[in-house]
Amino acid sequence: MRWLLIIFTGLALMLSACSKIGSGEKIAVVNWEKVLQEHPQHARLQKLKDDYGLLLDKRREQEIIGKTQMSSLAKLYQLKRNSKQNFLSADFFTRMTEKQTAEQQKLKQLSDQLADQVDKELAAEEKKLEEHYQLRLFNLRLKLDTVRMVPEDRKKVESELKAARADRDRDRMLLMQHKMGLVNQRMQPHIDAMRQRLDAYARQLQGQMMEEMKKGTDDPLLQKAPGVLKELLGTIDEELDKRQQGIETLETSIKKETESIVIKLAKERGYSIVFHKYRTNVAADDVTGDVISGLKKLGARAEAAEALNKKTAGSSTGK
Q1: Where, if anywhere, are coiled coils annotated (predicted)?
Q2: How far is CA 96 from CA 107, 203, 204, 213, in A?
């Protein structure tokens, strides 16, 4: 029995123990790509590949659309959050201004009350000061109006009157500063209390603002979008895997049937080696047409068997 070596796509399908080409060996060549294209199932295989490519394009398109929609949704959500934050910030400023105005009005009323109280407490001292300078100033003005004096003496009395007025103004200022000091001293605890109330109110408003902002952090659409896209793409991926398996199964079947015809033809004609493409340094018979004829016969038998099955199935259904 002669051994057979068939070489496909640069690799050898070993059907013999011999790998050397002798001078008496019969050699054949087959255009492998052409016979595969002539296989009865090639059109179906190409249709499966085209459908796979279309589904793959659809998957890529869906992914781009989904990510674009999620990006737009995230931007819209952030815009809504920024608008809400701006509104809450303006509301915070308005409320704090109203609170500060009310507190300052209370302090003003309290300051006026304390000033009146201090005026009453220092009324006697103020009256004593005025009486002290009143008699002194009266005597000096009277002296200037009624006594005839030489210019030097008049200047001297005028200087004394001016100095007395300056002393009176100084003592008045000191007394006023003393009053203001007493009012400020008594106001300080109330000012500190007001600041504490404002700080507490600010913290209260900030807490409310944070709670309001938290209410918008769990956007249902934004949270569900990645899961929905993943589920959609997962469904498409499952379909792609099924179609890929179908393509690989059909490709394997086509190659095996074609190889079977080549092997049968080689055995019938006594070829020991069959190349899948021409070798310039090897004389070989081209059996491409014969292999294609064998594939057509195989296809015809498959069609006849399918028609018979349909006829048998139809008869069974009619009964």
Answers
A1: 107-135
A2: 16, 11, 11, 19
- Residue with the two structure tokens 């944070």: 210
Say if residues 34 and 262 touch (Cβ distance below 8 Å).
no
Q: Which two tokens stand for residue 153?
A: 């003496």
At 217, phi and psi to the nearest 5? -80, -25
Nearest to 126 by CA among 78, 85, 182, 86: 182
DSSP state of 166: H
Residue 297 tokens, joined: 């016969």
C-alpha to C-alpha distance for 100 and 194, rounded to whole angstroms: 9
Residue 212 CA: distances (Å) to CA of 5, 198, 219: 81, 21, 14
* Helix extents (H) in the chain: 32-37, 42-121, 123-146, 151-214, 220-269, 288-318
Q: Tell me, what amino acid is at 189? A: P
Calpha distance 44→40 (Å, rounded): 8
What is the extent of the structural domain holding 19? 4-318
295 CB neighbour count, 10 Å cutoff = 21
Cβ neighbours of residue 272 closer than 8 Å, sequence gap 6 or more: 2, 3, 4, 5, 16, 18, 25, 26, 27, 266
The amino acid that residue 268 corresponds to is E
Residue whose tokens read 């690989």: 248
176: CB partners within 8 A, 6+ apart: none
Residue 299 contacts residue 38 (beta carbons within 8 Å): no
Q: How many domains are contained in the chain?
A: 1
Residue pLDDT, tens place only, 17-34 = 334 455 567 889 999 999
Q: How far is CA 314 from CA 189, 304, 307, 311, in A?
A: 105, 15, 10, 5
Which pLDDT tens digit goes with each residue over 137-167? 888 888 888 877 788 888 888 898 899 899 9
What residue type is 257 in one-letter code? E
Contacts of 7 (CB under 8 A, 6+ apart): 13, 273, 274, 275, 276
